[in-house]
Amino acid sequence: MGVDSAKIIKNKSLMNTKTIKLVLFLFVGLMGLNACYYDSEEELYPSSGDCDLSNVTYSGTIVPILNDNCYSCHSSSFPQGSVVLDNYNDLKTHVDNGRFWGAVNHESGYSPMPQNLPQLPQCELDKIKTWIDNGALNN
Length: 139
Ligand code: HEC
What we know:
The protein has about 140 residues and is mostly helical.
């Protein structure tokens, strides 16, 4: 009798340990799956979510991008290729003749810009495109 009940208790606690291990395993496994799921979604859609195209303006969006990537070679004081981009009117001229977008978007027939540097990140290209599509306003 005494031995039997001890066995049962031992078996029970063994079951419990197994169950707990199984639950833990499933839980950790699901968390891992979740992480993988988000990872692959980020890889598939790198610019979705992060790239806010809702408030694109000349002063707030375009000027900072050009300041970081283009003014060093295209300022009024020393414009390379006679291309001035550091004021609205000159920039607008190159927007309207298509050279600005052709250059940053690396289209054939245009010199790829920024010169000798990697193309601008997709989100910045999307912002520039949005600004142009909205009429390239001086806002
Ligand atoms: C390291 C210097 C340098 C940087 C940085 C640079 N450019 Fe240029 N860019 C040049 C030179 C030099 C030319 C003229 C020679 C040529 O067309 O390759 C030029 C030409 C251009 C042209 C005329 C292209 C054509 O095919 O007619 C445009 C538009 C332009 N740049 C825009 C930009 C923009 C926008 C940026 C920033 C995203 C930028 N550049 C960054 C040096 C630079």
